[in-house]
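Practice record 12: protein with 2-acetamido-2-deoxy-beta-D-glucopyranose.
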Amino acid sequence: MAIITLKWHVLRPLLIFLFLLLCCLYYIYHAYRPPTDLYREIFNSEVELSKNLIHNERGHKYVKFKQLRGAGFNNQAQDILLYHHLALQTSRIYVYQPFIWRPRGEKAEVPLSAFLRGPTEGTISDAVFDEVCPPEEVIHVRLQVDHLKQWKHALDILNGKDRCIVVDDWIFNWLFLASPGLHTVWPTFQKYLSTHFKWSDNVLTIVNRTQTELNLRPASAPATEQGDAYMALHLRRGDFEEHCKYLLETRQGFTTWGTLPILQSSVLPPKLDISNTTTIMDQCYPSLYRILDSISKQARDRPHLRTLHVLHDGAWDHPTVYLQYYKLAGALKDPEWARRAGWKGGPMLRVTHSAEVPIHRGERDWSVCVDVELGRRTEVFIGNGYSSLTTQVVALRLSDEGGKVEDITLY
Ligand SMILES: *[C@@H]1O[C@H](CO)[C@@H](O)[C@H](O)[C@H]1NC(C)=O
Ligand SMILES: *[C@@H]1O[C@H](CO)[C@@H](O)[C@H](O)[C@H]1NC(C)=O
């Protein structure tokens, strides 16, 4: 009897621990499991809609591009939006391809229309391309030229008569995206975003729910509407410590729209100077002091903004991001700190963050889009010029009615 009791004493905590561990794993498995059935349905409806389009339209011209496969969500989104814009500019139907969901492997495809509606409306899925453009009718071209001439050259060739064109080289590659060649695209791209950029309903449903549950009011809504006016901070940490070291060694500047000349007044001094590695690290992986300074710069003269939402990449594999978030939130809510920083309206009353976004089971893949949209809808946005999420938010803000560079700070 004594032996059994002893064993039970040892066993019980162990069993409880194993039980809790299983519960935990079960929870993670379910929370991160993609909505496979829904994705299959969406893929099928993409094919159906594309077939309707090719059977009902005559005289159309098509273009399919070699696109980025892999990298982050916003890297792919920026690439896709540029290609869709180019197709529209040359009166061609854009042949869209699925997103690659990198966290689940380089072959994990998710349907584009589950995320972005713009490039999947009035366009066709790659799955039906062969039907409308059999291989023998396809003209293959390579379009890469000098960055400054790239956009014009692509327009010239795609404006040609050939009905089916496949572009075999990756024209909007990293080097092009970091070059002033991209700036020649901005005037028309800005208009493109304001008319063709649309999230899927899956994304908008979560954004609406988040605004209600976190009590955040978009800048475009009248002040009588429910919720607090807020500013957003994009805290890009996670894998960025390593990434920034690489950017430093290769002496790189901001990414895509972060390089726009109109935005340079938004950069917190000292300005980025790629010949000075200190400034690269300061902008790419800034100290918490520098981040607080950039929030202060905006908050000081806006006493009505007392709520901050932090977009961050904290996760089980990057737990220290939470620590940094809590340090920032602590300072921002401290009356003494706000007084010393010269804030007229007192400290932040509320600080919310990505982990509080009400994501239901099977919705995890959309959370990155929700972050982008929450950053877009704020009165003030503070971000990282090296991040594609930040630069995507910035491009969307500047193409929205009333979007101003003064309401953006890049730390
Ligand atoms: C989100 O909210 C807006 C404004 O209340 C509403 O017009 C829209 O239909 C909602 N969208 C979805 C997908 O729920
Ligand atoms: C590099 O930038 C830092 C920070 O602005 C500055 O203190 C330093 O003097 C600069 N170094 C050089 C060599 O310009």
